[in-house]
Every structure is written in C-alpha cells, then in structure tokens.
Amino acid sequence: MPRNPYARLFAIPGATAFTLGNLIARLPMGMFSVSAVIMISGARGSYALAGAVTATGLAATAVVAPWTARLVDRHGQARVAVPATVIAALGSLSLLLCVRYGAPDWTLFASYAATATTPNTGGMSRARWAHLLKGDAAAVHTANSFEQAADELCFMLGPVLAAFLCAALFPQAGTLIGVVLLLTGVLVFAAQRATEPPPQGRTDAATEAAGSPLRAPGMPALLVVFVATGAVFGSLEVVTIAFADAQGHKAAAGAILALQAAGSCAAGLVYGAARPRGPLVRRHLLCGAAMAALMTLPPLAVTVTGSLTALAGALLLAGMATAPTMVTGMTLVQHRTPEGRLNEGMTLAVTGLLGGIACGAAGGGWAVERLGPAAGYWVPVAAACAALLLSSAQACATSTPRRRPARSRHVSREA
C-alpha cells in the first residue's frame, strides 16, 4: 500500500469511482441557493421574496433530510438516493418554469420545498468510508478530513460557478446546469454497488425508537455544538458581504469568502495527513478552542486597519481551524451514532449545521444594521465561543463515569 494516507484511500477498489460521482453531485449544493436568489430577484425584483423562498427550502430540508437518511439506512443508498434525487430535480425544474412564466408566488415556495428530498451525498460518502475502513481509526480520520475538504471546495466553487453561469448565459442557467450535475453525480455514485454499506432492513417500532441517533448518549449535546458552529459560518458570510459593500467593493465579497474556504480546505487536507493523537473528545475541544481564537482576527483586522486586504488575510487564517473542528465533530457523530443509522446521524449533524447557518445569518444581519459592519464581526466570535463552551460541557459530561453500561461503551469507543 502507498505511504501517502490519501493514496491509500484511493487504492481501495471502487473508491475513486464513488468519490468522483459524489463530488459531481455535491458541487450543485453550493449552486442552488445562489442561482435561486439571482433568478427570482431578477424576474420578480424582490430580494425579500428570493430570501423567503430559499429559507423555506432550508426549513423543509431540516424536516425531510433526516427522514430521507433513515430510509437510506434501512433500504440502501442506491434504492433511495436515486428516486429522492429525481423528486428534488423536478422541484428545481418546477421553480425554474414558475419563475420563467410568471406563476404565482406560492408556486415558488412549493417548488423549492420539493428540493428538500435531495440526499445528503456527503453523509453517504462518509458512510461508505466508515464501512470500507471499519476498524482502522487512522484511515477513517483521513477519509473524514478529505470529505470535509471536498465540502469546502464545493461550497467555495459552487456559488462562483452559479453566479458566472447566470450572468454569462441566462438567469436560469445556474439552476438548470445544477440539476444536470446533481442527477449525473448521484447516478454515478449509486452505480458503485460494491462499496455501498449493506442496508439494515426494517425494524419494529420499539427498536426503531430506541435506536434513534437522537437518543444516543452525548448526541443531542453534540448536535447543539453543530448549531453553534453553523452560526459562525452564517454570520461570517453576511457580515463580510456587508463590510465589503460599505467599502464600495461588494463584488469582492465572494473572493474574500473564498479565501476563508480555501484556508479551511488546505487545513483539512493537512490535518487528515497527520496521525491523530489523544482522545477524540479532547481533539474536538482543542480544535474548537483554535477556531474561537482565530475568529478574533477578522474583527481586529477591520477595526485596526479597515482594509479589505487585511480582512482577506485574516479570513484565510481564521478558516484554518474550521475544517479540523468539523472533521473531529463528524468523527464523533460516527462514534456516537448507533449501528446501522450512520446516514441518519450524519444528516442530523448537517441539519443542525444548516439551522445554525440560518440563525447566524439572522444574527449577523441584525448586528450589521444596529452596530455596523465592523462590529458585526464579533458575532462569529461569540458563536465560536459558544461552540467551545458547549463542546467543553459535553466533553465533561462524556468523561464522567456512567452507571449505565451502554454509556460507558460509547465513552470507550471515543477514547
């Protein structure tokens, strides 16, 4: 086997094929919301309507995504992901047609809500790695780091690609090409049946409820940490756009935010190549502390210099702690999720993250309106500190000896 940890991953038969399909399917995740905002605001002349439609889609995803993931665990990735993707694609196409032909506003909300069935391809990919690398903690760490870097890359390139397509071709181009990429990627991913985790099958209602990830020891507290972490991302995006606009360079906001994602992507790859040391809970706590510390750089940069160049450098450095924090968090989710419910557990984590992004965006917008763009940068700092405190609390709770055997087993797995 190759010595390079990433080369060892892709030496596994079928790993390259399902990763390629997954990356193609994941790229549109950063395209759809930006494309919808451009398409709706351009046709209806209302950013408020565009924002409300995309918020409705986010709320619908928070409800539907865990249910879709549960079906994936029960019946298998290919059997559920393909029809779920078709339904989501039809919802996007319906939105496109409703905007194009001036349908009533309520049809936009209904169409975009239908896209909530989009499967969590990142979670399904992580579940495949966990299945293929079972028992090899170092390799799972590398795989999770790669997946987090892929997330950062897709969410960095997706909005840029969407904006370019909508501007260079026609307003609906971003949505249309996003649908094609999503369908193509999921079909390629689902075709790799040899690497797919075996479905768990149907269980009785009592067993289903008892085995829910939400009932796993330490899982609810960890999901709250994901909400706080999402608030860091959501507030940082809104405040950066507002600050760039106040400086008269709103168009530069995308490039500045891309630097933050680039720093996170690079740090994730480096972190994945390193050999993990110490208990997983402690690593998650240390990564959270680093994120909280580095998040103080952007407000200091804008307060001291007021320069977009200084802000760009600060965001590049601040992003270097987010990927390791997410990697260790997702690994904790894998450890705490009951056997056979891995897709559901990771989708719950993503749902918490999305909810936090929405809350952070609202909090960042409020701070910008009341206190100004420069002061708004303290919102992501506060969110990062909240994530650190919550992480510390759940780490202490996890390390406390339990009377129940099931809980002590979870602790030993994480150690």
Précis, in short:
This protein has 415 residues and is mainly alpha-helical.
Structure description:
By secondary structure, the protein is mainly α. It has two domains: 202 residues, Growth Hormone, Chain: A, CATH 1.20.1250; 203 residues, Growth Hormone, Chain: A (Up-down Bundle). 79% of the residues lie in helices and 0% in strands. The chain is built from 20 helices and no strands. The chain is globular. The relative contact order is 0.14. The C terminus is likely disordered.
Order of helices and strands: HHHHHHHHHHHHHHHHHHHH
Q: Biggest sheet, in brief?
A: none
Tally of contiguous helical segments: 20
What is the CATH topology classification name of the largest domain? Growth Hormone, Chain: A
Roughly how much helix do the residues carry, as a percent range? over 70%
**Could you name the CATH class of the largest domain?**
Mainly Alpha
Secondary-structure arrangement, i.e. CATH architecture of the largest domain: Up-down Bundle
At the fourth level of CATH, the homologous superfamily of the largest domain is MFS general substrate transporter like domains
Output the radius of gyration: 21 Å
The end-to-end span amounts to 27 Å
The overall pLDDT average reads: 80
Keywords: Membrane, Transmembrane, Transmembrane helix
Organism: Streptomyces huasconensis
Transmembrane segments: 6-25, 46-68, 80-99, 221-244, 250-273, 285-304, 310-333, 345-368, 374-397
Pfam family, one: MFS_1
